Here is the input.
Amino acid sequence: GNYGGDLRPQVHFSPPVGFMNDPNGMFLDDNGTYHLYYQYNPTENVAGNQHWGHATSQDLYTWTNQKIAIFPSAPDEGIFSGSCVVDSNNTSGFFPNQTNGVVAIYTLNTPQRETQDIAYSVDGGYTFTKYAQNPVIGSNTTQFRDPKVIWYEPTQRWVMVVAYPVDFKVGFFTSTNLRDWTPVSNYTRYGLTGWQYECPNLVEVPIESTAKTRWVLHVSINPGAPLGGSISWYSLGTFNGTHFSPDDATVQLTDFAKDNYAGQFFYGLPPSQDQITLNWASNWQYTNVVPTAGSEIGDGFRSVMSVPRGHFLRELPRRGLSLLNYPWNIHSIADAELASNSSVGNGTVLLDYSDVKSRAIYFEANITGLASSDTLSGSLNFTFSSSTSGEYIQGGFFIAPDNNLWLDRGHTNGFENPYFTDKFSATALYNKDGDGEFRVSGIVDRSIVEVFVNEGEVSATSVFFPTEPLDTMALRVSGLNETATVSVGVWALRAAWL
Ligand code: FRU
Here is the structure.
């Protein structure tokens, strides 16, 4: 693939050529290597002909492309989304002589039906053999997909969540051997339904500053998101090995804007640590026509993954317990600090980053010393622009009146599409008598921007397509009360692909 294009992100994963959608099968192996599989069409720049592409990484930013891991066996088959587990105790019987056997559980899509199938790998996840007795869960419907499997220690069972998309239903199945599965419960019709449920995840996540955890049921819906197309949400609750019981009838959105879908949690990270996802940074409404690819295979690519996101639960004023969504270990890929100012006050930080090879930037602005609720005021805005064409993206945070994070990709000219919504905002809804501190941070990487409040109490993922590279940053603070200070840091991010 050609990784040098102006729209090709440098700290995000994208496929060498062809079309990518959902992340699949992610796990950390016992050598400390992260494995990412993904919905992959290696022969066209549009969705279809689904294979499992594969890449590996030590740090979740620097990826090595591996050979395609799972291929369809017939022209009308698709290897749809699913997950992997490491069967270290050989529960499946596929791995008599090893502790690093990997089982992939995926949907086999044909024009007649979707079934849940498995394949096993004796070489640590690089090559797979399909199980001769597939499917492991049969069906007569074309609407039954995206199995995600975890190990549930208390009952010594594998647990699968899988979507019945048009019934708005998540099915729960258990197994002792990954071959025989028993239906144990259904979770149905909570939250936004959209047109269909896809890509469910069940994961145990730590609660900040406690030894406690809570279970998260994470569901993607498409189409039918509030701003159109695809989005995902989560519900918090308890899990007893067979049933998920939501704490209440509410759900929260994982991310705002329009390019964060089908997120998957890595398999096997202990619940005492923050959980990690990658998310498909696109939207079914326009993914097949974005301008990163031409009509020929090898001519560009389509779709990128979000940066890895770390997740834990925090009790927030007004919102209650919430899933935080922050850029995992982003400082580990920070190169030179391009700007640093610990007392910006009301003022501007300007930066020309045309010399930065990656043209990928991370910035952080920490606002402290805000006055009490009745005098809260001020805002922080950022603009990333092209010195040659004048195109720009912008965003910011309004402290008053209601802690809004916003983003605007409308002043870039490389893509016209009725669904390519320009502007997004989300209200963080802090308690206005809170501690008077905020952090606003963001990653801008050629054709994708991700922004965060604090450790991801609010987050947004958005792709954008300028005709000329962005190379200039301006960060402006205005209207702050006198007691407040803002400290700003801006870093070049290390190019993972050049
Ligand atoms: C979600 C999805 C999944 C399906 C896959 C096919 O984006 O529609 O439900 O398994 O994509 O590529």
